[in-house]
Design a protein that fits this description.
Number of domains: 1
CATH superfamily: Nucleoside diphosphate kinase-like domain
Oligomer: single chain
Number of helices: 12
Bound molecules: inosine-5'-diphosphate, magnesium ion
Shape: globular
Largest sheet: 4 strands, antiparallel
Number of strands: 4
Strand order of the largest sheet: 2-3-1-4
Order of helices and strands: HEHHEHHHHEHHHEHH
Radius of gyration: 19 Å
Helix content: 40-55%
Distance between the termini: 24 Å
CATH topology: Alpha-Beta Plaits
Length: 206
């Protein structure tokens, strides 16, 4: 017998995802927690876990990937910006090796992410991982489009941050891939932190 439309509607869509958003210390200290959460909610994405916390360096060390490819990519992003603005990485950082630069940046990140309280949340919705990244905007505030959180509220760049030997202040963290999202959900939340509920619009939107 064919399934009724009602039954089909109850099946979860294959693109329903959960992702992790963390309002970083600069976002909390600038009073942007509400504004940041609002942007996800207004898009139709749902907060299913939410908490203020402060992290230790060890915890942040376990949060960010340790794979060589990830660290090299972090350094490559910096080198791209240096090329664009004709900054000599050797003069600025003592090396032009992307892995060495990525390792430095990763270290600065531990300081940044432990410099004050943060707010962590799990955001759920259709294509949540990519949608949340889009709402956050480009990693580097100097490249982030207007209309995104980073584009509307931050102005930092690798050139400025690296000179001060600190992480780029870009207000939010958001998981980049399904693997990162799964790791971060397991890492920062227990099953009892997560709530299931229906938003009023769900019947109309889907
Ligand atoms: P993402 O946060 O957009 O996923 P990633 O490349 O994963 O970006 O980098 C993690 C964090 O490291 C960034 O959000 C930013 O705070 C910081 N960061 C990235 N590149 C640099 C840099 O060149 N200098 C200082 N900090 C950086
Ligand atoms: Mg990332």
């Amino acid at each position: 017998m064919p399934k009724s439309r009602t039954q089909l509607k109850k099946l979860p869509t294959p693109t329903q995802e959960r992702t992790v958003v963390i309002v970083k210390p600069d976002g909390v200290k600038r009073g942007l927690v509400g504004e940041i959460i609002r942007r996800f909610e207004q898009r139709g994405l749902k907060a299913v876990a939410l908490e203020m916390f402060s992290a230790t360096k060890d915890q942040i060390d376990g949060h960010y990937p340790k794979a060589e490819a990830w660290i090299t990519r972090l350094g490559t992003k910096t080198l791209d910006t240096y090329n664009q603005y004709k900054i000599d990485p050797k003069k600025e950082l003592g090396t032009a090796d992307p892995f060495a630069i990525g390792s430095k940046v990763r270290g600065w990140l531990l300081d940044y992410m432990t410099s004050g309280p943060m707010v962590k949340m799990i955001v759920e919705g259709i294509h949540a991982i990519d949608m949340v990244r889009k709402i956050c905007g480009h990693t580097l505030p100097n490249k982030a489009e207007m209309g995104t959180i980073r584009g509307d509220y931050s102005v930092d760049s690798p050139a400025a941050a690296n000179r001060d030997q600190r992480g780029i202040h870009n207000l939010v963290h958001a998981s980049e891939t399904p693997e990162e999202a799964n790791h971060e959900i397991e890492y920062w939340f227990s099953p009892e932190d997560v709530y299931e509920y229906k938003r009023a619009e769900e019947d109309i939107m889907f």
